[in-house]
Amino acid sequence: MLSPLLPSLLLPCLFCLSLCVLPPSSAQPVTSPAPRIPLPRSPAPAFSATAVLDDEFTTVSLASYTERGEWLVLFFYPFDYTFVCPTELRAFSDAAEEFKKIGVSVAAVSTDSHHTHLSWTRTRREEGGVGRLNIPLLADTGKKISYDYGVLITDPADDMFGAAIRGLFVIDPSGTVRSVLVNDDGAGRSVDDTMRTVQALQYGDSHEGEGCPANWKPGDRTIATNADGAKDFFESWA
């Protein structure tokens, strides 16, 4: 005769056996897909982060620009207290007023903390600092913004693992990505070409049927975006 205690003794064993036989789906490591860069004509990923501006902490979001009807140049850089990065930040900061004249704001992002950003802006340029800037420095410590914009280095074997590569995104007032530039670490970006790109996009938006050819600058001749109209430009260009 079976003991009435037998079922209670067997249950723990059956439970242990199920752990060995059944696939441990809940124990599988969770991996995120590789980051993808949002291409022109796609919505810019929304973001909100603590930033340093005017020697204070503030909150900066994509909505804070689009709600004001502004264009945004959003650029990512790898690290505070490095080498190429301070030259880019100073260059874009110095041009901030010129960008504002054409309805464009500029913001910079790295995966450093807002405390590190503040310290960096309080460090003299001669000592590797950036000094006080005219643009906000966003702290992406959770790395979500860098990931959403496809510029986060996710390879643990890479010496920049966990940092953002040099990505630059031009976002229009509707929150749409209009231009993307991504450089490897050693190549700083051109403020002049960024300005020219924004101006060309703005011109095209306000002049339907016209496009801006290579190396175009405001005041230069544009090209009609139809086969017959373009011939006038091509005759003088050829």
TrEMBL record:
Keywords associated with the record: Oxidoreductase, Signal
Q: Which PANTHER family match?
A: THIOREDOXIN DOMAIN-CONTAINING PROTEIN, THIOREDOXIN PEROXIDASE
Protein name according to UniProt = Thioredoxin domain-containing protein
Does the record carry Signal as a key word? yes
Which residues belong to any copy of the Thioredoxin domain? Answer: 38-203
Looking up InterPro entries in the UniProt record yields: AhpC/TSA, Peroxiredoxin, Peroxiredoxin_C, Thioredoxin-like_sf, Thioredoxin_domain
The chain's coiled-coil residues are none
Q: Which domain of life is it from?
A: Eukaryota
